[in-house]
Automatic annotation (TrEMBL):
Domain DUF7507 as annotated: residue spans: 44-147, 160-257
Segments of skewed composition (Low complexity): 138-147
Region ranges (Disordered): 124-147, 249-272
Pfam families hit by this protein: DUF7507
InterPro entries: Chlamydia_OmcB, DUF11_rpt, DUF7507, Ig-like_fold
Protein name, per record: DUF7507 domain-containing protein
NCBIfam families: B_ant_repeat
Amino acid sequence: SYPLTQADIDAGVVDNTAGVSGTAPDNGPVTDTASATAQLARVPALRLTKTAIHQDTNGNGAADVGEPVTFTFSVTNTGNVTVTNVEIEDPGVTLSGSPIASLAPGATDSSTYTASYPLTQDDIDAGSMSNTARVKGSAPDSSEVSDSASASVSLAGTAGIGLVKSGTYQDTNGNGVVDLGDAIAYGFSVENQGNVTLTDIEVTDPGVSVSGGPLASLAPGVTDSTTFSALYMLTQADIDAGKVDNSAEVEGVPPGNGGTGTPVSASSDVSVPLERKPAISLTKTGAYVDANGNGVADAGDTISYSFVVTNT
């Protein structure tokens, strides 16, 4: 018997020659040889395993644009022949590593190749990132042997929105007095406070008519202060109160599984003080009344007074 070597299996064949010799009755030598060839089944195969991990570099518990997803690759020779020039291809990531010169049957390489990928906003909005890599190598007969593997990582999405409402008194007639016809101009600053894109953003305010919007989309960290505005005309009740209190609400829609997610909202209150200038004037007039009509002022005649009171 003969114990096979890996070189034999890689070659796919074992050739062997035997010789026989003996002595004839006349004492002469008798010899012969015979060869045998055994064909060996070669089964080249590779298995690729890929893993992905999101690196939360700022430690905020959420996925942010530019944070890396790191990939590791394990290549196993699951066949019975040596595979050479083992190489991983992954066009979607930045790959590090060089071809593995040789990988014996049963051997695994988990250190030669690594990869990194910077997250995009589209990845975060989608809630996950997936990627497929391919490994290839050469069998002893120069044929290609390959495998592919995918890896995905879930990305934590946090939807949040903020609203800051401002109000500015406008002395419409320029008389320096708060009166009817004057107005309050309202501004609205909307901020995306989460890590996912918000869409269909609207500001509502039951106290005024809001102009502008809806805002089609707002990226994380971005503030919009120009889309929404409102103008409110003062009433006498406002002036008497010395202020105008008002509240507004903003709502936006985050991405969700297969479509849109649950809307997020925020509110903001603002109080605009109004200067009150209470003033009153009194005009008094007096008229002599000749009660007895004698044309002479005498006892019993009167003076009639009238008063005009004006809220100035």
